Amino acid sequence: MEEKIKESEPVETPGETEAILSVPPAHKKHSLAGLIREMWPAYLIEIIVIILGISITLALEEWRDNRRENHLEQIYLKNLHTDIEVDTKTLEQALTGTKKLLESGNKLLGYTRNPDDKNIQSAQLFVGVRAILGRPNFISDDASFTDLKSSGNLHLIDDIQLKNLLFAYYNETQHIKEVQDAERQATIILSGTYFLKRFSLDTSRNLVPITPGEMNEILKNVEFGNNVLLRVLNRNELLNMYQTADSLAVQLKDELIKK
User: Fold this and answer.
1) Residues 50-84: tens digit of each pLDDT
2) What residues does each domain of the chain span?
3) Pick from 80, 116, 59, 76: which is nearest to 252 by CA?
4) Alpha carbon distances (Å) from 209 to 203, 206, 218, 228, 237
5) What does the buried/exposed string (b/e) look like for 217-240 if buried means 16 or more CB atoms within 10 Å of the residue's CB?
6) Residues 6+ apart with CB under 8 A from 201
7) Mapped to the 3 state alphabet, what secondary structure does 206-240 carry?
8) For 157, which DSSP code?
C-alpha cells in the first residue's frame, strides 16, 4: 500500500525545479508595487485618522484650558472689584480725617504766625493739638492682586489698560503705606514727644486754663510752630496721595464693571 502512495505522489523533474528558481526578481518587484497600489488608500485613511485624532485631542485640551482660565479670570476680577470697593470706603475715611486734621493744623499755624493778633482760648488750643496728633490711615486690601502675581496667573488679565491701572493703583497704595510708616515714626519721635509733655490728651480731664500771657508764649514758641508745621506738611503729602489713589480706584472700578 505504501508503495502505491509513493508512486502516486508527483515528482518534480529537474526542469521544473529550475523553472521555479529562475523566476525573475522583476516579477517580485512588480507584485510588491501592485500590493502598494492596492493598499495605499487604506494607509492614507489610517494616517488621516491618526492626525485627526491628535488634532481633536489637542483642540479639546485647549478648549478645556481656555474655559478653566476664563472661569479663573472671572473669579479674580470679582475679587479685585470687591477689594477696590473696600479700599474706596477706607480711602474716604482717610481723606475725611486728613482734611479735618489739616483744618485744625492750619488754624494753629495761623495763630503762630500772628500770636498778638489772635484771641484763642485754652480749649481751642487743646482741641487743635489733639486733632493734629491724629493719624487717619489707609491700608489697602490687596490680597487678590498679591495672589494674582504670586500664583503666576497675571497672564489671565489680557486687557492692557486694566493691567496698567492695577499696577498704578497698587504701586500708589504701597507708596502710601511707606509714607504713613515714616509719618508714624516722625509723630512718635518728634511731634508726639513734644506735645505729650505739654498738653493733655485726656478730654475728660479738667484742664487749667492758660493765661493770655502763657498762650502768647506758646504760640510764639518756634518748637511749637515747627511741630505743627511738620504735621501739616506730612498730612498734606498724604492727602495728595489719598486723592491720587481714590482717582485710580474709581477708574479701576469702571474697568472691572465692564468685564
Assistant:
1) 888 888 888 888 888 788 888 999 999 999 999 99
2) 52-258
3) 80
4) 14, 9, 13, 21, 34
5) ebbeeeebbebbebbbebbeebbe
6) 130, 133
7) CCCCCCHHHHHHHHHCHHHHHHHHHHHHHHHHHHH
8) -
